[in-house]
Design a protein that fits this description.
Layout (H helix, E strand, L loop, with lengths): L5 H8 L20 E9 L8 E14 L2 E8 L2 E11 L4 E8 L9 E6 L2 E10 L2 E13 L2 E9 L6 E12 L5
Antiparallel strand pairs: 1-2, 1-10, 2-3, 3-4, 4-5, 5-6, 6-7, 7-8, 8-9, 9-10
């Protein structure tokens, strides 16, 4: 596998902010809402090709009972529906990305939250070999994220695939 689908990456890179004063559970995901200027630098690895991207990412988000969802647009085009759930007893988040246009989504996965650091891990097994991937979002403010995407074959040594920054330009919800 050399390429990770754009819709899945866009879903992962959108990030969600958590600060000490932010709401808990699904309500914390309201930080997703709004429009973001994104910049990413891809490195040449077995799973990514070198290059740079700049895009506008818009998340139209809402909560419905036990779910939080965001319809995500990239450069004005519908890209994916992101659906989140939260198990309050285990304090565990899950996310699923459904790409626009009936494309096949990536697997649903866990969202690991540690203060202002949010990690989206997943793995792919091919020909009996498992490769681990993760996107790490570090919130430097409620309106900016530094992020990186990495892969590993042993979950100890990680290779950088991409790094970037997102800056919210509008639509921040104040809770």
């Amino acid at each position: 596998m050399r390429y990770v689908p754009l819709a899945f990456i866009a879903a992962l890179l959108a990030g969600v902010a958590v600060a000490a004063s932010s709401p808990a559970g699904l309500d914390a995901l309201s930080a997703y809402a709004g429009t973001w200027q994104t910049e990413i630098e891809h490195l040449n690895t077995p799973y990514s090709a070198a290059g740079k991207e700049i895009a506008m990412l818009r998340n139209d988000c809402w909560r419905s009972a036990d779910f939080y969802a965001c319809h995500q647009y990239v450069n004005g085009k519908s890209a994916a529906l992101l659906v989140f759930s939260y198990d309050a007893r285990r304090k565990r988040y899950r996310s699923c990305a459904i790409p626009a246009g009936s494309g096949q989504g990536g697997p649903c996965g866990e969202v690991m939250i540690r203060g202002n650091v949010w990690m989206f891990p997943w793995q792919v097994t091919a020909n009996g070999k498992t490769t681990y991937f993760r996107v790490i979002n570090v919130w430097t403010s409620p309106d900016s994220i530094d992020y990186r995407q990495e892969f590993s074959v042993d979950r100890i040594h990680w290779t950088l695939m991409a790094k970037g920054r997102e800056q919210r330009t509008s639509g921040r919800k104040h809770l």
